[in-house]
Design goal:
The protein is α+β, with helices and mostly antiparallel strands. The protein is built from six helices and twelve strands.
Length: 237
């Protein structure tokens, strides 16, 4: 049963709504069934998407917390909602890649599906208007992001990758790549934010190579609803 009632809506994005609660330090995230791709140029919706993203994120945040990774997660309120700490977000998207896919294949000319010799961490500016460009540390410093924060983002990305690569491998899944975000709490501590779901990760079946993520929607492959349901099943049992 929910313990935090949704108050004023603070933000509505492509796939979720964020509400204030009666505690100013706590936010309520409600995940939607809506989907977008290519910077919202493509739109769609399917039943159960919000449920998958909320429940997967809750389960994985709990797992990461148990293994020493600080996150914004507080509790799962219902099947489509979680509560989190109210953070000041960095304008940074942290992308970690283990296998060449998507934009990386196009950027450096490596065939999709090629395992990388070591994980690659990319730091991108969180800006829909600019298309979330990948920037160097010097660019971010020019925008006022401290070097220590950038280093934390990279180290956090690699730590999360180490834990989740093993976590998903045990469930028969290759963690191809993922995106996370980082925020700072009122005490100054940086921590993992955003979500861990088929919207923000590429998941491939270890045996068949079947894509079990939003690429099925991006590329009009069909079976999107089934892929999300399968990922939820594997994560939550």
């Amino acid at each position: 049963m929910a313990t935090n009632e949704a108050g004023e809506i603070l933000y509505e994005g492509k796939a979720k709504q964020v509400f204030a609660t009666d505690d100013p330090q706590v936010l309520l995230h409600r995940y939607k069934d809506d989907a977008t791709a290519y910077n919202a140029a493509k739109r769609g919706s399917w039943e159960g998407k919000g449920r998958t993203n909320a429940m997967m994120s809750a389960a994985i945040f709990k797992y990461l917390e148990e293994h020493g990774v600080p996150t914004h997660f507080i509790s799962q309120e219902d099947e489509t909602s979680i509560t989190t700490k109210n953070l000041q977000m960095l304008p940074v998207e942290v992308v970690v890649r283990n296998v060449a896919a998507g934009s990386l294949s196009r950027l450096i000319g490596i065939e999709e599906g090629t395992p990388l010799s070591a994980p690659i961490v990319e730091l991108c500016l969180k800006s829909d208007e600019l298309g979330d460009p990948m920037l160097t540390h010097a660019h971010f410093r020019e925008l006022g992001v401290p070097e220590d924060d950038l280093m934390f983002c990279e180290e956090l990305g690699l730590r999360v990758n180490e834990l989740l690569t093993s976590f998903f491998d045990e469930k028969g899944i290759i963690l191809v790549d993922f995106k996370i975000e980082v925020g700072r709490d009122p005490g100054g501590e940086l921590m993992l934010a955003d979500e861990i779901s088929p919207d923000t990760c590429r998941f491939w079946d270890k045996e068949t190579g079947e894509k079990l993520d939003k690429d099925r929607f991006r590329r009009d492959m069909g079976g999107v609803e089934e892929a999300y349901a399968e990922m939820l099943r594997r994560v939550t049992g």
